[in-house]
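Annex B. Sample input.
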Amino acid sequence: MINDLRDFAKLEGFKLHLEPSLFPIHEVVYETMGILMEDIRAAKMNVQMAVSDDLPPIITDRTHVEQIVTNLLSNAVKYTDEGGHIQVRAEVRTDFVHLAVSDTGVGIDEKELKRLFEPFFCSEDPFVRARQGTGLGLVIVKMLVERQGGELTVESVKGEGSTFAFSVPVAGEQ
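Annex B, continued. Sample output.
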């Protein structure tokens, strides 16, 4: 919670320092999956990965891309019932690497989708309320993606699941 508040304050004040480096995004995805694997196994979730190791490298702040991927994947695990499915896929779209995390989780009501990126917003859904959160994670993710020249999108259907996706420029295209 403290880290979320600190990061939010830095982003709001444009004081967050980005340190670009060249790296393959698949490394970040697989490292994050490794960290979350115990939770995934405990929840008996099925994970499908479509993240090729031959995607072009990106040049951006690796630490913040790790934060973005970790937040999206951990949210998919957190808001999906035991036995659910998570899919992670990445592809090149024009001059961007596009990474999407889909789940068969609780989904988000259409009226709540409009407020999803408001600081401290929390769903009225009891399943969501039972999980811990600050209401800042997705706000921070959106700000981090945009500060690095990318875009964050969300598609969701209540009771069916969600897909959060972001894009970041490939190396040499920023």
